[in-house]
Amino acid sequence: MLTICQREPYPEAASGKPSLGQESGELESDASSVIQLSHSLGSQPFETRGQINVRSLKSGSVNIQQDSSYDWKDYKEAGEANEFYHLEAFVKYNGIERTFLTSTKACLLYESQLADIITIHVDLLGNIYGVSVATPHSQQCTGTVPEFEPNFNTTVLISYMEHGPVPDVAMYVQKVEQEKVAKERGETKDNRSFIAKYWMYIVPLVLVFMMSGASNPEQPAR
Question: Mind telling me which residue stretches traverse the membrane in this protein (predicted)?
Answer without folding.
Answer: 198-215
